[in-house]
Amino acid sequence: MATKCSQCPLRRHPLFKAMSDHDVKAMQRFKVGELIIEAGTPVLIEGSNSPQLFTALRGMGIRYKTTLDGARQVVNFVFPGDFIGLQAGVMGEMAHSVEASSKMTLCVFNRSELWTFFKTYPERAFDITWLAAVEEHFLGEALTSIGQRSALEALSWALLRMFIRAEQIGLVHNRSVAMPFRQQDLADAMGLSLVHTNKTLSKLRDQQLADWSDGYLTINDKDRLAAIAKTEPDLVPSRPLM
Amino acid sequence: MATKCSQCPLRRHPLFKAMSDHDVKAMQRFKVGELIIEAGTPVLIEGSNSPQLFTALRGMGIRYKTTLDGARQVVNFVFPGDFIGLQAGVMGEMAHSVEASSKMTLCVFNRSELWTFFKTYPERAFDITWLAAVEEHFLGEALTSIGQRSALEALSWALLRMFIRAEQIGLVHNRSVAMPFRQQDLADAMGLSLVHTNKTLSKLRDQQLADWSDGYLTINDKDRLAAIAKTEPDLVPSRPLM
DNA sequence: CGATGATTTGACGAGCCTCAAGGTACGTGG
DNA sequence: CCACGTACCTTGAGGCTCGTCAAATCATCG
Prior knowledge:
2 copies of one chain form a homodimer.
Chain A: H1 21-30, E1 31-37, E2 42-44, E3 52-58, E4 61-66, E5 72-78, E6 83-84, H2 86-91, E7 97-100, E8 104-110, H3 114-120, H4 122-148, H5 151-168, E9 176-178, H6 183-190, H7 194-206, E10 211-213, E11 216-218, H8 222-228
Antiparallel strand pairs in A: 1-8, 2-7, 3-6, 3-8, 4-5, 4-7, 9-11, 10-11
Helix pairs in contact in A: 5-7, 5-8, 6-7
Chain A binds a DNA duplex (30 and 30 nucleotides) through α7.
């Protein structure tokens, strides 16, 4: 049985911008169903033009691109509340692939109705643009991390980012959160080798800054980690939820 | 005397999606003036909430972020036709700064009218989202370049990108284009040191792949450069012009 | 209980960074 | 008209971070 938008468990988190009843009803009309997929399942493929758009409701995944010689760049990690497929929706083609890293539940929308949606609900159209801007914001930060920070700093930044995002949607219990990603995913995200990523993670563990092991990420002192990452542990601004 | 949108010299380039008369008139109503600035002038500051949005009409610039310890990441280069200030427009705050690298002419829009604009012209609202998606597409590619490619490959990619973009708006004459950027800008864009960037650029010059000197970028064989960059010299898809 | 995938550890070398100095072009003022 | 300052580009030397190669350990699963 599909979750009703009015009952959406995500919306109550302060991370997300408040929605009017009108907005919620608009989403309910736009939503055509739910999709449950297992870990490892591809959701969208780079270069494809999916007929459907999604919002992650439960579970996590990765967005990634592959180069001609087979290297993989993880562009971002997908958390509950993330909108998937916007590029195909407006440009007609995805610039990256999306794959589930854990079992996921996705809200499904029809791409063919996106334009009607823009005309009918300008508030929600504005919110979709907002989401695109949030993604641009994040990618700029990621670029800065890979380009300007050392491996230790970059990984600190990445772990802190993921942890705070998980915190904001209530996934952190006892300073820990379940992380279904592999070290290879993190390495591909930060442009580091798997070996060096592994060694740097154990350095963070030794220094009691962040412990990622056995599928759980534990962070005790966010401020100290933020100092290493040369960033501020500022609250990520609230964003719309589609 | 400000250029009328109906006379816009950019729109005729095939890079930009065709606009209906209705769209052009919408833009004319949205545009409140033109701004001419000298090289080195800041346009928008990271963290600020500008009351104005811009479209680059002439000249070039850079988008950049600075870290707490003073390092600079150039996020993108601004070319004629680029929309500036979208993040402030929807999120209320810029995630990066924008600065002119040459003398620039900017079309000016009022941020306060953006929402009205979304309601009144859903086609153009859709196009603004498209532009945001294009930027996201680019940042994903940039991330891949910095993360997965060697200095030689990354610089090849960057030069090729800039060259093709310039070509698409008619700035290339005799296989050359005027580039107002410094080597430091390019270094900060690719996460490399100035010294190594310089040495790598002369390697590209020695191998007759790309010659960036005296303020001009010259590329004779795009395919060969693309092969080094491990990318395809594919035409960038057309995009909307605001 | 072998097969597969993920994590861990060590050794070694290369790509890139830092430091340092010199070169060139250009503007400014004495 | 030349000395000087500034901004940018260029080149060399040396060292560190990080990548590559290789192999061992561990967990999961059929």
